[in-house]
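Researcher: We plan to redesign the surface later, but first we want a full-length starting point. Tokens attached.
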């Protein structure tokens, strides 16, 4: 019995130290549990970091200024150019006022020469034309008869290969028209007005080509 008492008495001084260590261990475990509970209460809080992007407006000096648009200058419309005057030897012929006659019964030109003949109708109201044929009075009469059938719309001028040169149609009183042609071979050629009845009244002449 004394031996057992002495053994217990030897172990007693070590019990307070053992108890202190046990309490410290329990406290550390409790603190660890509290930390884990706090982390579970806010899951991912330690890993989540909220970054808010703040967009700053550019200062006025940094803002690109749109390029100014230039309005194209209006294109100048070219002035209409006048048609060049026909070139050639000028020849003039007209009518004796209201009379159904040409103011000249003879004309003369050189063979192969470019001719610019201007016909002026001196009448006030009566229309006339000027037609040059490749022949004498007989050809003139035949072309004149064909012209009567051509009608006023055609200016009483037929589509006849014996016609060398002519006005475009009837020339009204007080107006003029130019006719350009090349003088034929040397010879004598009749010209006339094919308005119905005018040839019969003497509206004719002769072109001499030398």
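Model: Full-length starting sequence:
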């Amino acid at each position: 019995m004394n031996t057992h008492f002495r053994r217990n008495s030897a172990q007693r001084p070590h019990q307070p130290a053992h108890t202190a260590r046990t309490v410290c261990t329990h406290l550390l475990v409790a603190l660890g549990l509290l930390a884990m509970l706090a982390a579970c209460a806010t899951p991912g809080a330690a890993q989540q970091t909220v970054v808010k992007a703040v967009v700053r407006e550019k200062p006025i000096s940094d803002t690109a200024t749109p390029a100014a648009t230039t309005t194209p200058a209006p294109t100048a419309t070219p002035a209409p150019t006048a048609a060049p005057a026909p070139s050639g030897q000028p020849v003039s012929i007209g009518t004796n006022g209201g009379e159904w006659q040409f103011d000249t019964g003879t004309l003369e030109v050189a063979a192969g020469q470019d001719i610019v003949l201007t016909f002026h109708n001196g009448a006030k109201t009566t229309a006339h034309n000027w037609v040059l044929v490749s022949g004498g009075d007989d050809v003139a009469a035949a072309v004149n008869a064909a012209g009567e059938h051509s009608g006023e719309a055609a200016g009483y001028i037929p589509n006849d290969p014996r016609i060398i040169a002519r006005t475009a149609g009837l020339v009204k009183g007080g107006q003029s028209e130019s006719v350009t042609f090349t003088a034929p071979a040397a010879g004598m050629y009749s010209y006339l007005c094919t308005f119905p009845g005018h040839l019969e009244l003497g509206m004719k002449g002769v072109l001499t080509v030398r």
